[in-house]
TrEMBL record:
The lineage of its organism: Bacteria, Pseudomonadati, Pseudomonadota, Alphaproteobacteria, Sphingomonadales. One of its GO terms (biological process) is intracellular manganese ion homeostasis. This is VIT1/CCC1 family predicted Fe2+/Mn2+ transporter. It is found in: Endomembrane system. GO terms for molecular function: manganese ion transmembrane transporter activity. Its main location: membrane. It is a multi-pass membrane protein. CDD domains: Nodulin-21_like_1. Keywords: Membrane, Transmembrane, Transmembrane helix. One of its GO terms (cellular component) is endomembrane system.
Length: 233
């Protein structure tokens, strides 16, 4: 999650952090697992081998998503902690300078100096660190980085996404697998793209076309490589 600037549509913005992670995780799960299955199937593998490859891909992908998200969100969280520690020290050191600093931020945003000074003093009397964190550093409860939560969300949504193309391997007979897998996975992707865009208040068509295009490209590439390698070995 990034540090979001405050916008009037706060209820939408507050959803974007986890929504982005969830859609991205499920999207990755579908694209990478479907591509893997199509690539292995195109190399003329046996159904049991395709299933093993798909299941291994699901576990590897979920762990990789969780680790990646944990590392990236942790480093953001460390940066926030360091910023807050510095701010805490500044507040303890020179309280007057900090009042002026906060008031200056409000003046820049259009508040007159006398009012800005009053607002800064009143906010700091209640929660000085909170006021500086929010208006100076852009850190609020809503945008605080949460590594464990981010890692879990990514792994869970990747697994949910990967389960769809994997389920097709179990349900569809071998000779139909490649076309059914490709079409069904693209439909899942399109559906996910439109649901994600709708929930986030973004343009639906653009998002749907975007995810479907990248999914189709990934599957076409792995199908080609699978066929090539399958012919060689
Ligand atoms: Zn400050």
């Amino acid at each position: 999650m990034t540090r979001l600037h405050l916008q009037p549509e706060r209820h939408l913005v507050s959803r974007i952090g986890w929504l982005r992670a969830a859609v991205l995780g499920a999207n990755d799960g579908i694209v990478s697992t479907a591509s893997l299955i199509i690539g292995v199937a195109a190399a003329a593998a046996k159904p049991a081998d395709i299933l093993v490859a798909g299941a291994a891909g699901l576990v590897a992908g979920a762990m990789s998503m969780a680790a990646g998200e944990y590392v990236s969100v942790s480093s953001q969280s460390d940066t926030e902690e360091a910023d807050l520690a510095r701010e805490r020290a500044e507040l303890a050191g020179n309280s007057d300078a900090e009042v002026n600093e906060l008031a200056g931020i409000y003046v820049k945003r259009g508040v007159d100096p006398a009012t800005a000074d009053t607002v800064a003093r009143q906010l700091m009397a209640k929660d000085a660190l909170g006021a500086h964190a929010h208006d100076e550093l852009g850190i609020s409860e809503m945008t605080t980085a949460r590594p464990i939560q981010a890692a879990f969300t990514s792994a869970a949504t990747f697994t949910a996404g990967a389960a769809l193309p994997l389920g097709i391997v179990i349900l569809v007979p071998g000779h139909l697998l490649v076309p059914v897998e490709a079409i069904a996975s693209l439909l899942f992707l399109a559906l996910l793209g439109s649901v994600g865009a709708r929930a986030g208040g973004a343009p639906v068509w653009a998002a749907t076309v975007r995810v479907t295009f990248w999914g189709a490209l990934a599957m076409a590439l792995t199908a080609g490589i699978g066929k090539m390698v399958g012919t060689v070995v």
